[in-house]
Design brief:
Strand content of chain B: 5-15%
Order of helices and strands of chain A: EHEHEHHEHEEEEEEEEH
Strand content of chain A: 25-35%
CATH architecture of chain A: 3-Layer(aba) Sandwich
Strand order of the largest sheet of chain A: 2-1-3-4-12-11-10
CATH topology of chain A: Rossmann fold
Largest sheet of chain B: 8 strands, parallel, barrel
CATH class of chain A: Alpha Beta
Number of helices of chain B: 13
Shape of chain B: globular
Oligomer: heterodimer
Largest interface: A-B, 45 and 41 residues
Order of helices and strands of chain B: EHEHEHHEHEEHEHHHEHEHHH
Number of helices of chain A: 6
Structural class of chain A: alpha/beta
Number of strands of chain B: 9
Structural class of chain B: alpha/beta
Distance between the termini of chain B: 29 Å
Distance between the termini of chain A: 9 Å
Helix content of chain B: 40-55%
Strand order of the largest sheet of chain B: 2-3-4-5-6-7-8-9
Chain lengths: 200, 300
């Protein structure tokens, strides 16, 4: 094992403290990541909810986007929620002009797919991989996975079939925010991947 | 809070407060047209506040300030993909109904506009769209939360470019939160009475040590250093009103304030961001404002 490397939470903007709290409750050492030097220390990374266009811009301005892409390609376990899912998608639909993602997940994601805040909602969703009970999912101006490529697999969908949770190797993404509830099975799934990989 | 929701449910507390959670660590900018909204989005704003006149102009031009023309707000909604907020007058629940019908993402029941009711604020529980409200102290913040506000911003003194009131209000609110945590349970009843706030909220904060909703700061932020200071003082994020578009180079200043808000604890980044920004808004010292012209005193 490569020692006890901390788990990172991308802290450019968004609800990164809530993610840090969940990971800390597993006994993980958690650090915030805003710079390449911090990224180099971590054995896994959560990209939080927030505004994806802002995360994109700041990650490029501060030289973090390229190291992030390289780390993802090297197999760093990463979990993205909402804006984080957008950042992990190979293709972003309805992004702001010039918006880029880090990529890694072989999917296309539509930003603000449900509409504006009035359409934000919460609902229970059965996730077969996680078993009972259903996951209580909170969607806030949330994205939806519109197409799923060969390399990615679907973990969860709404009743109407729209995909809201995907996985591909060490990458995990959800349209919703488990960090806002007490059900942390998705974080646990990510953290187990971190422990199994112990990224060197 | 029950976690069982077999049918999709909109407008819940968690969903309303949740959007504010996603804005944390970000900058929300006042804009008066689609072009300014695009500049703000390009600069990295997490949301824009659509209004007809920025507070500095409301101040200099006087008259009754009301909610904006729906066409103007709609133009801004079409121009950007980030959340769009808009202001209703204090107590003007019909302006708020219109803003909800217009599908804005957040309604600001704002003292920057002329109050429509000098007794009651809007009953914000009746709305699906969440509200942000201003506060100068913890009691005021809790009264707003009790009325259904899903986000609080410290008021500062809008349209001045003088950060001193913003400093005073964020220190006051967070100082009063810290003070509550030091009280014993039998002292919380009187604390609630003195704060003129509901006991249940006071007891919740004494236990958790934090407000139950996100707390931004507003009113007088004009430089990257101002924004970073608010963050170091414990704000979750920053509203910038007149400070951006009343300055010499709005695009550059807006981007600089965004950087300084993310890297609020890194003086080197704030220093670099502060170079070559051109003229800051000229501003007014709050101490030179006669009491009737202080917007922070509106709301109660």
């Amino acid at each position: 094992m490569a020692g006890n490397r901390p788990v990172g939470v991308l802290a450019l903007q968004g609800d990164y403290r809530e993610h840090a709290r969940v990971l800390a409750s597993f006994g993980a050492e958690v650090i915030t990541v805003r710079r390449p030097a911090e990224l180099e220390r971590v054995s896994g990374l959560v990209i939080p909810g927030g505004e994806s266009s802002v995360m994109d811009k700041l990650s490029r301005q501060f030289g973090l986007a390229e190291p992030l892409r390289a780390a993802i390609a090297d197999g760093l376990p990463v979990y993205g929620t909402c804006a984080g899912l957008i950042m992990l998608a190979d293709t972003v639909l309805d992004g702001m002009a010039g918006q880029r993602s880090l990529g890694g997940l072989d999917i296309s994601v539509r930003r603000n797919a449900f509409g504006r805040q009035r359409e934000s909602f919460e609902v229970d969703i059965d996730i077969e991989e996680l078993g009972a009970p259903p996951v209580h999912a909170v969607f806030i101006r949330a994205p939806v996975v519109e197409t799923v490529g060969e390399r990615a697999s679907v973990l969860g969908a709404l009743d109407d079939g729209r995909v809201i949770a995907v996985e591909q190797g060490n990458l995990l993404g959800t349209s919703f925010h488990p960090e806002m509830t007490d059900d942390h099975r998705f974080h646990r799934r990510f953290y187990e991947r971190v422990l199994a990989t112990r990224f060197v | 809070m029950t976690d069982s929701t077999p049918r999709p449910s909109v407008g819940s507390d968690r969903v309303k407060r949740g959007l504010a959670e996603m804005l944390k660590g970000g900058v929300i900018m006042d804009v008066v047209n689609a072009e300014q909204a695009r500049i703000a989005e390009d600069a990295g704003a997490v949301a824009v506040m659509a209004l007809e006149r920025v507070p500095a102009d409301i101040r200099s031009q006087g008259g009754v300030a009301r909610s904006s023309d729906p066409d103007l707000i709609e133009g801004i909604q079409k121009a950007v993909s980030i959340p769009v907020m808009a202001k209703a007058r204090i107590g003007h629940f019909v302006e708020a109904q219109m803003l909800q019908a217009l599908d804005v993402d957040y309604i600001d029941e704002s003292e920057v506009l002329s109050p429509a009711d000098y007794v009651n604020h809007i009953d914000k529980w009746n709305f699906t769209v969440p509200f942000v409200c201003g506060a100068t102290n913890l009691g005021e913040a809790l009264r707003r939360i009790n009325e259904g506000a899903a986000m609080i911003r410290s008021k500062g003194e809008a349209g001045t470019g003088d950060v001193s009131e913003a400093t005073k209000h964020i220190r006051k609110i967070l100082g009063e939160v810290r003070a509550l945590t030091a009280l014993s349970p039998d002292e919380l009843f009187v604390a609630a009475k003195e704060l003129q706030a509901p006991y249940a909220l006071v007891a919740e904060i004494a236990e958790s040590g934090t407000l139950p909703v996100v707390l931004f700061t507003a009113g007088g932020v004009a430089t990257p250093a101002d924004a970073a200071m608010m963050m170091q003082l414990g704000a979750d994020g920053v509203f910038v009103g007149s400070g951006v578009f009343k300055s010499g180079d709005p695009a550059k200043r807006a981007a600089a304030i965004v950087k300084a808000t993310t890297f609020y604890d890194d003086p080197q980044v704030i220093l670099e961001a502060s170079r070559g920004l051109g003229e800051a808004m000229v501003g007014i010292n709050v101490s030179d404002l006669a009491a009737p012209h202080r917007l922070a005193e509106r709301g109660w």
